[in-house]
Amino acid sequence: MKLVLSLLDFKDDLIGQSYVIEILKVVPQSVIDDIEIIEDGVEPEIFRNKIDVLLRPNYSDSFGLSVIECLSEGIPVIASDVCMRPKGCRTFSNRNELELENELRYMMNHYKDIYNEINSYTYKGSLKETLKIYENIMNRKGVI
Known about the structure:
Blueprint: E1 3-7, H1 14-26, E2 35-39, H2 44-50, E3 54-56, H3 65-72, E4 77-80, E5 90-92, H4 97-118, H5 127-139
Parallel strand pairs: 1-2, 3-4, 4-5
């Protein structure tokens, strides 16, 4: 298993740097080499091609656009239950590390079933639908 972190401008930001340091403190030394940090500005396709599961353990969240984007691309998601989550998203109680661990184990043991389940859904507001809207606007005459 490889951990991929997507962080915004962390190299030029002291808060971002301290966040990475805190993450590395709790990660077992044996997997440090299996951590990849992706900085802001990386194309979404590159990120999506690197992950099998999105983990969104936020302490607060209003919706979590990355959750719907990943689900709509067929990437399973485990997220904290701090807000309403889309159908197919696996959730755990906020700040409950045992539940998070159980969800990760469940995902590892049932990945194919979960993957097939989420790929049978259509997600409103997904990245694909949003891109279609932009393409339709750009293809109209007179749009620069």
